[in-house]
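Continued from yesterday's entry.
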Amino acid sequence: MSAARLSLALETGEITLPDTGRIAVFGPRGGVHDLSGLPLDRLHVLTGFKPDVDYFSARGLTCATLPEGRYSASVVFLPRAKRLARGLIARTMDVTDGPVIVDGAKTDGVESILKDCRKRTEVSPPLSKAHGKLFSLTPPGEFDDWAIGAPQQIDGGFVTQPGVFSADAIDPGSRLLADTLPAKLGAHVADLGGGWGYLSTRILEREAVAHLDLVEADHAALECARQNVSDPRLRLHWDDATRWRPDELLDCVVTNPPFHTDRSADPGLGQAFIAAAAAMLKPSGQLWLVANRHLPYEPNVSRLFATVTEAAGDNRFKILHAQRPSRKAR
């Protein structure tokens, strides 16, 4: 758990917080960012990632996806996406009356953000530790041009937001999977980790699909899906796809699962999606999955399903088709 920079800055007095008023915490990651050095009874955690909402809510913290009112101070944990990071800072500066504390790793572009912030407002001397930096900003500042604004439109007429997966174009792996799917998928289908809705749009081209559940942990992506897919057969779920379960067993699961934790490859995420899919399928159910060619999913799929084949692929991606989940998986 990474807490070094923020804890050290508070302990040494390099960063001070107001004695009263709410403190907003933007974008903390569960199990990564330790908030125990902050006054917990005054914190308002702001994140759109459902597993993080669940993590901090379970620890008694108040969570929301958007700011509510004004704050006496704020903490921003920088995300990887530069446009999203800038947007978070712009939003924070708009709703904060006191110091805005920014914390980020070098690999997340904190040095570039620090340089740009110095051109716009007063910035404290940065604290460098654990391959990152922490500094504070003094509102107000000229950050309006950093605001995220309305969703952007990409090829195909879809809308996306900065920071969501495949924000600038249709993901080529998802396109390959959609092009490979057979005409018959069954009446009840789920799109796990469905993002802003591309795969769901393609699945719903089939009239025989009576119900489609799109499960997505990123609130911003799910709101884009709400705009991109108006078909009444679609049901949207803001949830952790590895924990969500349907009301009844499914005929088919389609998924392009994530495989990164921050910047590190983590095949365990995709394997958790596979296990969740097996648990929610009928005995005759099927799984369609796209993965990067190098990811070692086949042993896990073979353990959980009676048959698995590579239905399509290229030098970058493979499409796996698995059928008949084992009783143990369900």
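--- second protein ---
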Amino acid sequence: MESLYFVGLAVMGLFAFIIFILVFRFFGFWLRARVANAPVGLIKMFGMSLRKVPVGMIVDNRITAVKAGLDIPSDPLEAHYLAGGDVGHVILALIAADKAGISLDFNRACAIDLATKGTGKTVLEAVRTSINPKVIDAPSANMGRTTIDGVAQDGIGVKVKARVTVRSHLDRFVGGATEETIIARVGEGIVSSIGTAASYKDVLENPDRISKTVLAKGLDSGTAFEILSIDIADVDVGENIGAKLQTEQAEADKRVAQAKAEVRRAAAVAVEQEMRARTQEMRAKVVEAEALVPQAMADAFRSGNLGIMDYVRMKNVQADTSMRESIAGGDKPRSEGTT
């Protein structure tokens, strides 16, 4: 009996020690939550510490939510922290949305917070942008360009700077396209609007036609933003693209013509070389035929078909022909006045 008595005392002492630790460690948090009418049990605080969740952060954010009229239990806050979210931003975003009359529940806010994690943006920024629209420059500074360039139908380039006023669309924020998509679509719309203008003068005279044309295309579809307005900040005249293209085309045509002429010249040279080769070939045949004449004459002498007098007469004819050719080649026309 005495041993059971001592065991009971030991168990009661251990239980009392645990209660003392809980009270000593979490009594300040518990009292602060109780006074703020946002109670969090000591057992829950002890469980948070075992799960390595900062108790003070959870209690403070629950107090902030309750004081703002949002009764959010500690369990969802703890779950969002364990999921890697920022509990403070979620609570502040919910408070801002509630004060501004924007419908945003806790789960949606947590989803937006987790979706924006690592992007440099927060759910609080999304709510603030939904309340106070922001202005986006098109093109943006990190694109390495200062203007959006288009070409009118008369070939004159037009340079445009635009400012896009957007507001966050919280229902489409998760899974919606970002600001880069808005800038790209606005740039595409501006280029298309300039391209449909008959002259660059029309763009300079009525720059608002660009805004109207771009807004009519519904560029914010599928994005996390709603486009409120597109304002043309600056319009300038660029290069004469049409004349430049015509010049380049003329230069290209000239090079093509030169290439074709070179082909024809090469073909002519090849034909000339071929004719020379054929001439040499024919001359070779003539020389070959002439080489057979003495042999034929010798055969004629041996066979008696050619006599000595025939040979002499042939030589006389050759000499007479040679003399006539030399005389004909040596005659030159006399100039007038000479005798």
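The longest strand covers residues 225-240. The CA atoms of residues 7 and 13 lie 10 Å apart. Will compare against the first tomorrow.
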